[in-house]
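Supplementary Methods, section 5.1.

A reviewer requested that the exact input to the structure prediction be made available. We therefore reproduce it here, unchanged from the version used in the analyses.
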Amino acid sequence: MLRCSTDLRLLNAILISTSLAFLSACSDDNPAKTDTQSKTPSTQRDAKDSDDDSSDKPKDFASITKSLAALQAIGAQSGEAVELLAAAIEISPKQAAEWAATLPPGLNKDACLEIVFNNWAQNAPKDAAQFAKTHLKGVDYRLALASVVEGAASASPETAIALLASENEPLLRSVLIDSLVSGAMDDNSEFLAEWAAALPPGNDRDKAISSLVEEWSTRRPVECEKWLTRTLTPEEKNEQAVILITNWASLNPRAARAWVDAQTNPELKENASIALVESWAFVDPASAFQWATGLQDPVLKKSALETVSAAWIVNDTAGAVEWASKLPDTSLQQTALQAAFERLAEESPAALEYWIQQHPGHPALIFAQTAFAEQ
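The structure derived from this sequence is encoded token-by-token as follows.
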């Protein structure tokens, strides 16, 4: 995956909110800033300058990037480096991109490329995209272009779509669609919904819909569900219900459960039920377990109990084992315990070994020992 990591997204959030008190000049790369400054009365500028203690602040791009280079030993992800990079981008995004391109491969370079191109694209997306195409190759190019599309989408999703249209390589298009949706979702969810629904059948439509549902359901699951039910084909709805319910259950498991209970399509109901209990188990495992035990379909009930037990045991081994051990149906009890300990063996062998040592003679010990021996 070329999508930016959570840490990098946090960096970008820091960057956007960073005060650009460093700035005292503006290059031709940012005409919007020049126009703004030209409209500021000189008395106001003089008053502002007189209030700033700028004696220790860099005055030009060269001194900023020199400071950034010195900070590489600390890491481009440090707060001070992010502030300096913000000032460099404001003065000259092109020079900032040239500087970032010279960094050695690694997380520092990835972080700088993402920040530079995302923010450059918010003001001049075509310039940022053209620079990436003519100056970068391989992973650097893909990361930069994805950042350009995300930054452009936050300001103008139409522009981001135009950038997407210029790329034909399927895997890169998939990455760019993710970036487009991520960048535009907060302020343009309805536009994205109309765009995705209008796409013809194929890889782009499938990717756009799944990316949209993933982002939308983590923010406003009720709106997402209404669009999904109203717009998608039955086959698409079945596929996307898992994503919807997984995220919805982590926010409001009872509302997600009510939606699942109301479904009449057997395949959709089964898939959504498993997604529900797996996500619900991390929020309220006891309630998820209780709901699973009340399912009427024996096959679905068995699968749901296995799922909730396996998800629960990783976070609360003792609680999961206690609940599973109390199941009145011996067959379901054994199935749930086996699935739970197998999951624990996969996720945390040390935790499983500790539980075995602390519970000699426990009725569920045989399942724990078997899972430990088979890891």
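Residues 112 and 374 are 44 Å apart (CA to CA). These observations are discussed further in the main text.
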